[in-house]
């Protein structure tokens, strides 16, 4: 039997923290700590080493974006030595928050009107190393680059990818799952997972969300192409 997912919930509203805790606990997810601001969230992560942090954006003092940047910059790890991952959970569906959170290294971004089942699924998915965005947020991220708001950067790491890895990255940026990638490229899922892992390692990216951002920022993928 696998170990339960260990979560820290960071939100400045006690009622919200209690609600998330009850939803997660009912599904066998272990909420090991709570925090009411960014500083307390960082302290809880250092002390408890959770698998996932549910991080509100707007909190007094240090906000969730800065806490996320600091948490991920320090290389926080779980009790099993895996990277601690962050899901941003907020009522504010605003471009600047979405993009800043993803650039900070968040592995997920959900709105607070998410259903209980979707929240539980997101926590488990992110703990397992995947990434998740609300569909409305994915559309807004793509729209950002369509409008020219995304800055194209000169990524010197791009030439390190093989032709096959570039092909995988392009399809990944289109939102394909590993199963869909395998079918499109006529490869086994294990092979696809190996390609994705190598792409992340070569480009020094945390997860698929950052890989999608990289693909657009580098100009490898253009919206609507």
UniProtKB/TrEMBL annotation:
<feature type="modified residue" description="4-aspartylphosphate">
    <location>
        <position position="56"/>
    </location>
</feature>
<dbReference type="Pfam" id="PF00072">
    <property type="entry name" value="Response_reg"/>
</dbReference>
<feature type="domain" description="Response regulatory">
    <location>
        <begin position="6"/>
        <end position="127"/>
    </location>
</feature>
<protein>
    <submittedName>
        <fullName>DNA-binding response regulator</fullName>
    </submittedName>
</protein>
<dbReference type="GO" id="GO:0000160">
    <property type="term" value="P:phosphorelay signal transduction system"/>
</dbReference>
<dbReference type="Pfam" id="PF00196">
    <property type="entry name" value="GerE"/>
</dbReference>
<dbReference type="GO" id="GO:0006355">
    <property type="term" value="P:regulation of DNA-templated transcription"/>
</dbReference>
<keyword id="KW-0804">Transcription</keyword>
<dbReference type="InterPro" id="IPR000792">
    <property type="entry name" value="Tscrpt_reg_LuxR_C"/>
</dbReference>
<dbReference type="GO" id="GO:0003677">
    <property type="term" value="F:DNA binding"/>
</dbReference>
<dbReference type="InterPro" id="IPR058245">
    <property type="entry name" value="NreC/VraR/RcsB-like_REC"/>
</dbReference>
<dbReference type="InterPro" id="IPR001789">
    <property type="entry name" value="Sig_transdc_resp-reg_receiver"/>
</dbReference>
<keyword id="KW-0597">Phosphoprotein</keyword>
<dbReference type="InterPro" id="IPR016032">
    <property type="entry name" value="Sig_transdc_resp-reg_C-effctor"/>
</dbReference>
<keyword id="KW-0238">DNA-binding</keyword>
<feature type="domain" description="HTH luxR-type">
    <location>
        <begin position="154"/>
        <end position="219"/>
    </location>
</feature>
<keyword id="KW-0805">Transcription regulation</keyword>
<dbReference type="InterPro" id="IPR039420">
    <property type="entry name" value="WalR-like"/>
</dbReference>
<dbReference type="InterPro" id="IPR011006">
    <property type="entry name" value="CheY-like_superfamily"/>
</dbReference>
